[in-house]
Amino acid sequence: MLRRDFLKRAAQAGAILPIASSGLFARPLNSFLRLQGVAGATDRILVLINLAGGNDGLNTVIPVNDQKYFDARPTIAIKKADALAISDGLALHPSMTGVQQIFNGGDCAIVSSVGYPAQDRSHFRSTDIWHTASPADVIWHTGWLGRYLEALHPEYPATLPTAPFAMQIGTSASLAFQSDHGSMGMAIDNPDRFYNLANGIGVKPDPVPATLAGPELSYVRDVIEQSNVYSTKIHDAVLNAPNNPVTYDSATLAQQLKVVARFINGGLPTNIYIVSVAGFDTHYGQAPLHQGLLNTLSRAVKTFLDDVAYANNADRVVCMTYSEFGRRLNENGSAGTDHGAASPLFVLGKPVKGGVVLGGAPDLTDLDDRGDIKFKNDFRQVYASVLQDWLGFAKDETDTALGGSFTRLPLFDSPAFGVPDEDHARMAGYVLDQNTPNPVRGNTVIGFRIPASARVRVSVVAADGRFVGSVVDRTLEAGQHRATFDTAPLASGTYIYTLEAGPYSVSRRMVVTH
Amino acid sequence: MNRRRFLLGRLNDDANGPPAPLLSASSDLTPYTPTPDKPWNAARAAHLMRRTGFGVTQAELTSALASDPATLVDAMLQPYTNPTLFWSWTQQPPLDPTAYTQEERNQIYSTWIRDVQFWWIGMMMTAGVKLREKMTLFWHGHFVSEFPKVEVAQYMYDQNRLLRQFAFGSYKDLTKQITINPAMLIYLDGNGSAKGSPNENYARELMELFTLGTGHYANNTPHYTEQDVIEMARALTGWDVNGREASFTLDKFDDGDKTLFGQTGNFGIEGYGEHDALELIFAQTDADYNIARPAIFLCSKLYQFFVYEVPNMDIVQGMAATLVANNWNVGPVLRQLFLSEHFFDDQVIGAMIKSPVDLVMGAMNAFSLKITINVDPGDPESHDPVRAMTFLSQTILYPPNVKGWPGGKSWISTATLPMRIRYLKLWIDPPDLPTTAPYGFEPTTFIKSLPDPGDVHKVVDALVTLLLPVPISDNAKSVILTTLLGGAPDYEWDPDQFEQKIRAGIIKITSLAEYQCM
User: Does B1 contact chain A (CB < 8 Å)?
Assistant: First the structure.
């Protein structure tokens, strides 16, 4: 499904930034197989739940043994007797019985005191920081998931997939999906109102004018095209979804998660979803509002996980909450709380190594200069864990997508699914050299080292994931080896070659020019 | 090995903003004078009407072409009497919470807020006051309050009237009045904020979203600091909502010294304290442009609202200078902008994506649809324009959050675009509703309003000029022509006989990407 000259138009639109250096590197083969939807493709799903407004973490995961908490919040502290104990000194808000059940069942991990250096207390700026994964003092225009998906799908947008890579349930796609090639995700509010436009138009689009109207028109046309391409798959998924014996609340969040469950259970191959619920900005009369919000969240997540479990999808679904900041330890004079800093987040689902609070209770003696909780876990550590250990993204590419290397957290029962990442391979003594010459026309030499005798495969795939040739496929002794590969039959372009030996895999990029 | 160019932009960029466009209009704020190169033609006249109002009809276009830009813009900026809504509840105090349950109050207030919404969109359709209503919408998206939190319909009504009163008025005076406006006091929790433990909500948004904006100047000085937020919150203590007014209680006011923007003193507002904290905000200089920071901040937003998504800072500076020179009055800024070379530059015509209000009210106007209230509030295909805007993600009096509607490309997504196109289809060719219904589009009457209704080729040109902001190719026009004729030869064209074909032809036009722009 080749598209009109998207890149040209998009570049004209100014919507696309120059890419400093081209393409891909160090991509494990399974990423390619996955993106092509062949055997080994990931069917793992990440559902992000945005708690917009700045969730009061201290009244969500409550430090019930800390007198400082009660002293700082004379009217809004949750009594220990009311809270739902989950671990030594910590208890959940009384309305969160659903999450407590999940936690006790071992399917919920809580990461405490999540934040970032130099906390920004603007809702909008801090939300952008979470969505772009930028450091607090710089502005990035692409999102963490957009960069992940862009690396995974270099063929986009020249070729559109049959189903969206990522979806926001709502009316506009999150900044988290934004890439140098536009949004890698789409927005869908209600699948019943996702109309196919193909019949409505029937006028072949004109070239866009060479004015500022051009980019706007191109953008609108791209959305028209996406709507048409995806609508069949989306409607099919909704029709295929079984009616499981669960009942969602009427709350927006519950209804959004219901839509996600219909997509997942209906077999839509989308891997990333974002849902969002607002109202967490509890400056005034917090107690009843927060009670309602957490109750909604807890019930919705429980229902959702039950729903996907009924359809045998529990093994492939993980949910994660996030909020732009927590709230101040001291309550204000309006029985509410003002903008704070670090706060806990929840990672939920059967694959989660649950029943733990990573980082333990927040330290209420060591506050920042505004009297806010300091962060212990950088949010990008959570992102790195999710990308690598849940979605199976390579370490190098995770570091690139996040703009740095962040220590992962033990969030999943069986992390690093598929092949271990390149670091593991390197540490184990597997080395794949850059081919020489590179760029190449004709023969190129690929060197590699293995630490022990093993069945070794070195193979080459095109940038679109198509297998183009085998370099080595036999048992070799430990040590350094060389193999020659003839690129003459290949078209000019970027190719990936991958060394696979036992559980290990290392990839490199070669450029063929004729 | 960072293979992407992570933009290391300064923080006073809009984090959501797109990168600067490759193309930029080279024209400036010099008054536009028609020339043979840049004639006062239908494209420019329709552009002025769409940007300053809601859609355009042939009658409006014809009348505009017979006039000139200055006469038209001056007429838009005429003084006016601030209108009132006739329903009796608007005269009454808020409901007594002891006499009604929360649920009853919510139900009653929801009915009343619909009164306000329909009153407002009715005025949007009223000749002569469209720019006033558009500016009221601008202020509503700037000095945001959300009805669901405010709860009391009277407060939203009063705030809407305050915004309308200042449609072309002083930004600084409006900031002062909105600060003690009951809806705002409730929305951003100024209500009851007292010394000792002040509420920071309003203080932060006042600076972040209403006057200064987040971020730093090029010299790395922040526009405001966290300390300024704390101290401003203290200066704003003492205010409560009392009936439909704000009241001040001296005992609740923190009358100690505060250090704001490096100046120490007993800051307050409305004559309390020794120095005015809001005057101090408006005295902050933008270190990059050497003019009052709130002027740059507001004019950037005005530019985005009326001209193009990415502010042209040369133009914004000129607007800011006009704003300050006119004692913060917005009217002269609008006059200068709408009469400028820049505004009529081909570069910017058609370069804005219609907001849902522009799309829906523009269609109501252009196709002479009648406003129909509450056909079926739960039905997305209802002909209720407020309902339509809601499904397209812009409900007046219910902005999404304190930052207002983000606008621009964010209006268009796979969730909203199919519905935008579908609504137009529904209004032009209602599938299962009698065409005599009050909202009904009258194809023959519509075509006969065009200059040469008997010549189908001229009808196509007239429709494109009236309904689209940029030209389309002969090929696209021929598709429209074929649809209008429905297979008949052109000499058989008869607006009286071709009703259904006219509907189909117009739907071709409203389904084009060009129709989403203005």
Answer: yes
Interface test with A, best of B6, B12, B308, B414 (most A CBs within 10 A): B414
State the nearest Cα–Cα gap between A1 and chain B, in angstroms: 19
Q: Is B20 touching A (CB cutoff 8 A)?
A: yes
Helices marked H in B194-291? 201-205, 226-235, 277-282
With CA atoms as reference, report the closest residue to B341 among B27, B9, B118.
B27
From A288's Cα to the closest Cα of chain B, the distance in A is 14
* pLDDT for the residue B375: 53
A505 touches A425 (CB < 8 A): yes
Task: Please report residues of A whose CB lies closer than 8 A to that of B192.
Answer: 284, 333-334
**Domain map (residue ranges) of chain B:** 194-283, 356-516
Same domain, A499 and A381: no
Number of domains in chain A: 2
Distance (Å) from the alpha carbon of B222 to chain A's nearest alpha carbon: 11
| pLDDT digits 0-9 by tens, B50-63 | 999 999 999 999 99
Q: Going by DSSP bridges, is the β-strand pair A178-179/B275-276 parallel, antiparallel, or unpaired? A: unpaired
> Could you read off the pLDDT of B333-347 as tens digits, one per residue?
999 999 999 999 999
> Does the beta carbon of B43 lie under 8 angstroms from any beta carbon of chain A?
no
Strands A45-51 and A317-322: parallel
ipTM: 0.91
Give B 64-103 residues with CB within 8 A of chain A: none
Which residues constitute the domain of residue A352? 42-198+228-402
Compute the distance between CA of residue B105 and CA of residue B97 in angstroms, rounded to an integer.
Answer: 8
Across the interface, whether the CB atoms of B350 and A196 are under 8 A apart is answered no
* Residue with token string 């399974």: A30
Among the listed residues B182, B60, B207, B41, the one whose alpha carbon sits nearest the alpha carbon of residue B125 = B60
DSSP H stretches of helix in B468-518: 474-485, 499-510
Name the 3-class secondary structure at A380: helix
Tokens of A465: 């994931």
Burial (0-12, 13-18, 19+ Cβ within 10 Å), A174: buried
| CA–CA separation, B191 and B152 (whole Å) | 14
Q: Same structural domain for residues A350 and A456?
A: no
Its pTM stands at: 0.82
Same-domain check for residues A315 and A454: no
What's the angle, vertex CA A64, arms to CA A61 and CA A65, rounded to 5? 135
Give dist(CA A34, CA A11) in Å, integer.
Answer: 29
